[in-house]
C-alpha cells in the first residue's frame, strides 16, 4: 500500500511537470488525423533549442524523440513566426488534416499549408 501511494505521487508529479514543460514551449507544432493515412505527430520547440517530438501515426519516426537545434535555427523559426497571422480564421473541412501551431497563448488551426509553408519547411527539417 505504501509503495502504491508513492508510485501514484510520482506519476502525478511527472504528469504535472510534463504539462508545465509543454506550456513553457516556444512553439507547439502538430498535425491531426484525417480519414486516410495522414501523418499525426506533436512537436514542442523550446527557446534553448530543445525539441520534443512524438510521432503518433503514419510517420517514419514513431515514438518520443528529443533533438537539439542551433541558436541560428531557433532564430530562423522565431523570425518566421513573426510573419504568421494567428488571428486569421478559416473554414475547416472534415477530412483534411489540421496543422496546429501554438505560441505564447496564440493558436492557429489551419488546413492551408501555403500560408505557413516557410515555417513548415524549417520544422520538417528537424525530424528528418
Main features:
6-stranded antiparallel beta sheet; 128 residues; disordered N terminus; single chain; 6 strands; 34% helix; alpha+beta
Distance between the termini: 46 Å
The description of the largest β-sheet is: 6 strands, antiparallel
How many domains?
Answer: 1
* Backbone structural class: alpha+beta
What integer is the average pLDDT? 81
Note the overall shape: globular
Secondary-structure element series:
HEEEEHEEH
Beta fraction: 25-35%
The radius of gyration is: 17 Å
The count of helical stretches stands at: 3
Number of strands: 6
The percentage helix is 25-40%
Strand order of the largest sheet: 4-3-2-1-5-6
Low-confidence stretches: 1-17
What does this 3D model show about the protein?
The chain has 128 residues and is α+β, with helices and mostly antiparallel strands. It has one domain (25-126). It contains 3 helices and 6 strands. Residues 1-17 have low confidence and may be disordered. β3 (50-57) and β4 form a beta hairpin. 34% of the residues lie in helices and 27% in strands. It has helices at 2-23, 71-81, 117-126, and strands at 27-31, 40-45, 50-57, 63-68, 99-103, 106-110. α2 (71-81) runs antiparallel to α3 (117-126).
